[in-house]
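pipeline: protein-struct stage 2 | run 1193 | Osteoclast-stimulating factor 1
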Amino acid sequence: MSKPPPKPVKPGQVKVFRALYTFEPRTPDELYFEEGDIIYITDMAEQAESIDNPLHEAAKRGNLSWLRECLDNRVGVNGLDKAGSTALYWACHGGHKDIVEVLFTQPNIELNQQNKLGDTALHAAAWKGYADIVQLLLAKGARTDLRNNEKKLALDMATNAACASLLKKKQGTDALRTLSNAEDYLDDEDSD
């Protein structure tokens, strides 16, 4: 009688560990690893240092190869850290455009997640002055109307003219679209 096939791993249920020491296998079914290696586990292991938010760590550091490794191993892309922030937030906060672009390739990436301070990835990019990332977020459809806990929009947090200009232009376009939709609605009412 053969063993049943392993259950598929759901995204985000992969545990990520950092090896505390080098391990030399003594039998063919054991795995060699070196101290500091990152190990992705679908079942719990012993004697390893767990990395709670590996995707966040990779995004914060701008470590593209580690980020790709996390994604390849199905680490959940929209997971939240203790501050309620996503990996996308940290990539935008750090100005890591290459990381942002890779995260954008993931299906169902959450652009508008607000952390415990109410800040979104767009708030972070505007505050840090990364106009290229603000532009990417806006092109992807990030909302400009979300206010943080201090009632500030991303525009209110913009620290340079380039970011402010992009946000004003986007808000102006959104306002015109809303106005246009309202006029269409009123025109429909008049036709009754």
